[in-house]
Amino acid sequence: MEKLPKIALPVIIAAIILVIVLAKSAVTIDSGEAGVLFKTFGEGVVIDEPPMGEGFHVVAPWNKVFVYEVRQQELFEKMKVLSSNGLEIQIDASAWYEPVYKDLGNLHQSLGQNYLQRVIQPAIRSAARSVVGRYTPEQLYSSKRDAIQDEIFIETKKILDKQYVQLNEVLVRDVTLPNTIKEAIERKLRQEQESLEYEFRLVTAAKEAEKVIIEAQGKADANRILSASLTDKILQDKGIEATIKLSESPNSKVVVIGSGDSGMPIILGN
Description:
Number of strands: 10
Strand order of the largest sheet: 3-2-5
Number of domains: 3
Radius of gyration: 47 Å
Helix content: 40-55%
Low-confidence stretches: none
């Protein structure tokens, strides 16, 4: 140490101090994150400037940077709510959300880094209670799942739009009813299905019977018309035509003219 020039010692000390200051002043913001600057000797949270973006930043050592994830995030909730008739229903839902980037300073100033617990969870729970309370268990089980999903999204979004949080989607993954209610609904649905099938069979049988009656009526009408149009003279003419055609056939036969009923020929042959 005695051999060092007099100027070297102050330089070393200054370098050490500089390293310490830089270490405390350097801030690295990773991908998908942004920073909110807090000026200790200034106006506090900086809200009139854009958030600090990704990368390396140097700030005054007496200031602070609060880092937020600004990518889309997911909240999964299991909620027990009441239906319109007071029965307990369990809803499994997911909410996709992210902070509004340009309002990150306002978000930090008004809610802080635990904004998920402060506004998002209460908002989606309140919306779920309100929406599910409008429907019966039968509606929730059968046809209204998409409807409650859309309504929960709309009501939650109304709340979060005022809180510097952007809600992208709400997904209702499962609706769980009490076993007794679920079995009763399934039994009712089976009975309704069986009733529909029975009505279908009745309609089909009635149509088949109507078809048979129409066909029988058609045949009766045809036979009546045919019987009315056939006279002895027509039958004799038809018989003569058939006799002529048979006589021209190469097959061996014997035709006895005038031996049949009403003078019709008798044909004898192999």
